[in-house]
């Protein structure tokens, strides 16, 4: 069996400890354990390890940070260089983060172009790569990205729209692109026993810049809206409660159990999104569905599972940048308890039927079987 190195954003060991204590779901483990059970020889690494203390890494890090700041793109060839010996002894390298996927392709395009090691990179927002690029750099970075993607032997997407649009922009061959399904731990994300129809607050959470909290802050409702994000300054008034912190990264970060409780007790979960091709909001959406919550979700051009989301059946879909549609959705749920309960029941069933960890693991397994 070929030797495979897998990279993701890290925290796997700590997360598994929490899972064993039933304090965290089995989400975000990328099916690695499932792949091992099916005979794959996999070694796991974090793509976010700190650099060694040396003058080369110090100066290189300054250069990487400079380009990252002016482009909003995190290409870090030093992150590959520091572990290149381990990588070069492997048969396949798979990255599950956008930044490290780009870094792999960049390093082996420009620094070791003769290496024929097989590279696979996963992306969450590839076709939106230039949305924050300065205009004068877009042509240059289109060429850089095209070269990087030619070097990657396999390209994995989390959303079908992002896959199609990226294939068009970068002229990708169909046989080198794959679509992975995301799933959630429906044994952890569960509904509470009683209905939350009488709850006096709505909940929204997310750290992704593709969240459209600007629109959400314009919504007028009798219920208080609690937003947990690192994108806004904290406030607490009659209409909004904004708390800061990303996933266990700060002293204000919420645990999974605390997030589950907020889902369960909220009247509804609102996921406002900018109209991007990125499959933004999928983890929160699926966690909330599994908790049996009516989800108010922006219908973007990047909606990752358009055939599974049925408006007024298992969720409520609203147009981008429309506070009025969010307000109407809230009012509709408030004034129709039967619809509220129907959507809640169907939400849970949708998560179990279409977005279980088993389906996600099988999706990952199918992709690895294709290219290994």
CATH class of the largest domain: Alpha Beta
Q: Strand sequence of the main sheet, in spatial order? A: 2-1-3-4-5-6
Structural class: alpha/beta
Number of strands: 13
Return the domain count. Answer: 2
The portion of residues forming beta strands comes to: 5-15%
CA-CA gap between termini: 9 Å
| Second CATH tier, the architecture of the largest domain | 3-Layer(aba) Sandwich
Tally the helices.
14
The arrangement of helices and strands along the chain is EHHEHHHEHEHEHEEHEEEHEHEEHHH
Shape: globular
Radius of gyration from the CA trace? 21 Å
CATH superfamily of the largest domain, by name, is: Glycogen Phosphorylase B
CATH topology of the largest domain: Rossmann fold
Mean pLDDT over all positions: 93
**Largest sheet at a glance?**
6 strands, parallel
Give helix % range.
25-40%
Low-confidence stretches: none
In short:
By secondary structure, the chain is α/β, with parallel strands linked by helices. It has 2 domains: 3-183 and 357-371, Rossmann fold; 201-354, Glycogen Phosphorylase B (Rossmann fold, 3-Layer(aba) Sandwich), CATH 3.40.50. It has 14 helices and 13 strands.
């Amino acid at each position: 069996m070929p030797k495979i190195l897998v990279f993701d954003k890290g925290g796997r060991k700590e997360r598994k400890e929490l899972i064993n204590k039933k304090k965290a779901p089995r989400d975000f483990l990328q099916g690695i354990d499932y792949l091992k059970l099916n005979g794959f020889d996999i070694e796991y690494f974090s793509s976010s390890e700190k650099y060694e203390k040396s003058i080369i890494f110090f100066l290189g890090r300054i250069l990487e940070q400079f380009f990252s700041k002016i482009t909003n793109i995190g290409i870090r060839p030093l992150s590959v260089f520091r572990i290149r010996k381990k990588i070069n002894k492997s048969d396949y390298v798979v990255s599950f983060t956008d930044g490290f996927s780009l870094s792999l392709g960049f390093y082996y395009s420009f620094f070791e172009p003769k290496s024929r090691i097989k590279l696979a990179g996963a992306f969450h927002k590839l076709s939106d790569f230039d949305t924050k690029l300065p205009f004068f750099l877009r042509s240059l970075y289109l060429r850089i990205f095209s070269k990087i993607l030619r070097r990657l032997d396999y390209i994995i997407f989390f959303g079908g729209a992002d896959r199609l649009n990226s294939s068009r922009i970068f002229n990708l061959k169909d046989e080198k692109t794959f679509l992975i399904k995301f799933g959630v731990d429906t044994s952890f994300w569960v509904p509470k026993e009683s209905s939350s129809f009488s709850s006096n607050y709505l909940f929204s959470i997310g750290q992704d810049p593709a969240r459209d909290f600007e629109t959400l802050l314009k919504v007028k409702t009798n219920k208080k809206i609690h937003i947990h994000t690192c994108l806004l300054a904290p406030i607490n008034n009659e209409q909004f409660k904004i708390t800061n912190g990303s996933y266990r990264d700060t002293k204000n970060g919420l645990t999974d159990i605390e997030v589950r409780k907020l889902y369960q007790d909220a009247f509804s979960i609102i996921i406002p999104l900018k109209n991007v091709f990125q499959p933004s909001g999928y983890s929160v959406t699926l966690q909330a569905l599994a908790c049996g919550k009516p989800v108010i979700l922006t219908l973007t051009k990047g909606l990752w599972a358009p055939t599974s989301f049925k408006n007024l059946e298992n969720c409520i879909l609203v147009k981008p940048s429309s506070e009025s549609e969010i307000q109407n959705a809230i009012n509709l749920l408030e004034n129709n308890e039967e619809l509220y309960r129907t959507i809640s029941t169907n939400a849970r069933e949708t998560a179990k039927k279409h977005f279980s960890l088993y389906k996600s693991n099988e999706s990952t397994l199918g992709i690895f079987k294709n290219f290994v």
